[in-house]
């Protein structure tokens, strides 16, 4: 027993040299920038001659910054709408493709093609397509008898429109994960349910969906974290406009740093925002763990 423990420890020590490059890359690309941002958040730096220590003044000012908290609310609304659309569409497509016997490979390839395009390219393409004067979508809607609407120029419709664009872009990711999850489910359970007289809907509702629930929650978490970091899609379509209708937290931090030249205030925004996201993720996992124990 002791020899086995010692052997395991020795094996673990032998793997340390192989992990060092990965740990070094993690320190250089993640930890060092965060520490440097934390350092700058205690100063007043304007990208020029001003660089003075202000202590916690940036954090105190941020607490009363209505634009910052409004941007968090907009980012949250975008995330909820986009993730819900992606989950519903991705699950529906996964079930539909799973039931197809021919041409599955072509269908999967077609559905994941948008994932191969960068966010900035997606935003510029859709910005042209939605242009109220030159865009093909308003032209098509006008031929169908609908009034021309500037979806990206409307303070009410701009944020939901960007959420739909994100769903068009990222639904393929949700689809490919859930489609693989469906293929991995044990068929014996479905056969037993069919023998008991369960319909196709009942087999999906009471068998497939509960078995897929952990995977769905995992995919939802991944997409939620990604949506909370949205930048390119908003920057390329509306740049936070009209007014501040689509100004997410990333856009606000960018504008504060590179248009208002308040680098320290921007660093403070992103640190507090990241802390809120980490706290939210930790709180979600804690609730899930408590609920699992009670169940």
Keywords:
single chain, 295 residues, mainly alpha, MetI-like fold, two-stranded antiparallel sheet
Question: Please, could you describe this protein's structure?
Answer:
By secondary structure, the protein is mainly alpha-helical. The protein has a domain at 67-188 and 216-294: MetI-like (MetI-like fold). It is 75% helix and 2% strand. The chain has twelve helices and two strands; from the N terminus they run αββααααααααααα. The protein has a two-stranded antiparallel sheet with strand order 1-2. Strand 1 (43-45) and strand 2 (51-53) form a beta hairpin. Helix 3 runs antiparallel to helix 9 and helix 7 (158-184) crosses helix 9 (200-228). The model has no long low-confidence stretch (mean pLDDT 86).
Mean pLDDT: 86
What ranges have pLDDT less than 50 throughout 5 or more consecutive residues?
A: none
> What does the main sheet amount to?
2 strands, antiparallel
Count of individual beta strands:
2
* % residues in beta strands: under 5%
Terminal-residue CA separation: 36 Å
CATH class of the domain at 67-188 and 216-294: Mainly Alpha
Q: Write the CATH fold name of the domain at 67-188 and 216-294.
A: MetI-like fold
Radius of gyration, CA atoms, in whole angstroms: 24 Å
Which word captures the global form?
globular
What strand line-up does the widest sheet have?
Answer: 1-2
CATH homologous superfamily descriptor of the domain at 67-188 and 216-294: MetI-like
- Proportion in helices: over 70%
By oligomeric state, this entry counts as: single chain
Q: From the helix content, strand content and strand pairing, which structural class follows? A: mainly alpha
Query: What CATH architecture of the domain at 67-188 and 216-294 do you see?
Result: Orthogonal Bundle
Number of helices: 12
The secondary-structure element order is: HEEHHHHHHHHHHH
